[in-house]
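Bumping with the actual sequence this time:
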Amino acid sequence: MDTHNPELRMISRAQLETLLGLSRSTIYDRLSRKSKRYDPTFPQPIKFGRLSRWRLSEVLDWIESKAVLRNQSV
């Protein structure tokens, strides 16, 4: 198995924070349907017991989708 492949690579919340430049609370706000900052397109974590990880490929796709939206509005 190629663990360098973004399709298979999982990242921690701390790595997600660094990659996106978002705080822990903002990440969880984007995930919470009760929050004003809820974003249904935001990548969902995969749970391994109490441990949460995000699939890097989904995070990168989400970033790209934001760039596409930005370019459409210009």
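The tokens above came from a reply further down the thread. Strands lie at 10-11, 46-48, 51-55.
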